[in-house]
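To illustrate the input format used throughout this study, we show a single complete record. The first block contains the structure-token representation of the backbone; no residue identities are included at this stage. The design step must infer an amino acid for every position from geometry alone.
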């Protein structure tokens, strides 16, 4: 009887094992399928996600102004409306003030670009001859290098590689404009109802993570907003400085247009200043004499002022992210989202750095300090409790 009961128990155990394995495998299968469907859904909604990312960046940049207005007993909704109308008025005024001049000078620059390239080709060919490079193939390669049609095709192909991702996300120029308008509307809604929105989002997380995440909203917004404010301010200063400098160096015919190009491209970290300097240097070479040297010196000085003065003062102090990570953010954002990614991914990386610092690194450091403080006391107590041999 005992052996029969033992065999029955073993049979019951063996029958229950496959069921447990089947249950676990079904759970894993459901998780994998759900994750796959979620990724597919996010990919289909990628344009909406990009719009939300842009809206969050805009809201973070304007939040300090809204908060200051609210401290003056101005209703938050009214403050949001006034700030957005003021921003629209400033952009409209700047566009009316310098927009026609910038458009005219850039159009003139494009029209005279073949002449500038021809002068540059002649200079390079003369330099090659002086260096003894008289091989016909070398001269032919130099001519092909400065061929306006070849350069135009290369510029178009290179630009498409950067813009195509942005166009895929925004569905063309019209889609990009609609995306920007939608992002502005969403950012205004976020700013006007930020408290209820934040409480609703953090309530999805269990305690104590809801309180921890709610406490991180303000520092994350400050870090992201500080990055955008700093980049816009630095780009504006550099655009004005380059315009003034080129005017004094004798390039007043294109100074405003070249300054606007340099200011806009400077919004892109690391690579923007180089892209903004290329048109001015091409024009300077065509002017002859020492103009190229002085223009190059101007951009070198301005770039060093930005790197060692303006960026640490206006951007680096608020971002507090290592330059290598900023560079990786720009490269990754450009690779995935094109030019849009180069502009919006770095502030998101800065915000993520706040969460990493406050939710992981600081608690980890505090726990290690507490363990180090407790260790000597535990050693002393252990030594005091050791038995003494007679």
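Output of the design step:
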């Amino acid at each position: 009887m005992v052996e029969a009961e033992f065999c029955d128990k073993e049979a019951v155990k063996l029958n229950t094992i496959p069921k447990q394995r089947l249950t676990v495998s079904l759970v894993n299968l459901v998780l994998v399928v759900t994750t796959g469907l979620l990724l597919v859904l996010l990919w289909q909604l990628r344009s909406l996600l990009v719009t939300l990312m842009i809206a969050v960046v805009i809201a973070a940049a304007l939040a300090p102004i809204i908060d200051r207005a609210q401290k003056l007993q101005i209703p938050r909704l009214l403050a949001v409306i006034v700030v957005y109308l003021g921003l629209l008025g400033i952009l409209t005024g700047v566009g009316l003030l310098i927009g026609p001049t910038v458009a005219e000078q850039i159009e003139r620059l494009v029209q005279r670009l073949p002449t500038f390239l021809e002068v540059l080709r002649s200079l390079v060919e003369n330099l090659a001859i002086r260096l003894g490079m008289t091989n016909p193939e070398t001269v032919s390669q130099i001519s092909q290098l400065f061929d306006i049609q070849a350069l135009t095709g290369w510029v178009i192909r290179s630009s498409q590689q950067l813009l195509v991702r942005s166009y895929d996300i925004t569905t063309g120029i019209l889609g990009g404009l609609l995306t920007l308008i939608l992002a502005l509307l969403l950012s205004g809604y976020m700013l006007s109802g930020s408290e209820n929105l934040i409480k609703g989002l953090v309530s999805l997380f269990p305690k104590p993570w809801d309180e921890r995440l709610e406490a991180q909203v303000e520092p994350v917004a400050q870090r992201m907003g500080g990055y955008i404010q700093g980049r816009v301010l630095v780009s504006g200063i550099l655009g004005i400085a380059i315009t003034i400098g080129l005017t004094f160096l004798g390039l007043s015919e294109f100074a405003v247009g070249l300054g606007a190009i340099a200011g806009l491209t400077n919004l892109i970290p690391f690579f923007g200043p180089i892209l903004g300097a290329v048109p001015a240097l091409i024009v300077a070479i065509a002017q002859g004499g020492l103009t190229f040297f002085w223009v190059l010196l101007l951009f070198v000085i301005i770039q060093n002022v930005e790197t060692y003065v303006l960026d640490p003062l206006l951007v680096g102090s608020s971002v507090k992210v290592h330059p290598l990570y900023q560079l990786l953010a720009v490269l990754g954002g450009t690779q995935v989202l094109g030019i849009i990614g180069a502009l919006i991914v770095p502030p998101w990386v800065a915000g993520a750095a706040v969460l990493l610092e406050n939710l992981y690194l600081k608690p980890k450091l505090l726990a290690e300090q507490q363990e180090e403080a407790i260790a000597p006391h535990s050693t002393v107590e252990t030594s005091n409790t050791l038995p003494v041999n007679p």
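Structural context for interpreting the output: Residues 47-364 form one domain. Residues 17-23 have pLDDT under 50 and may be disordered.
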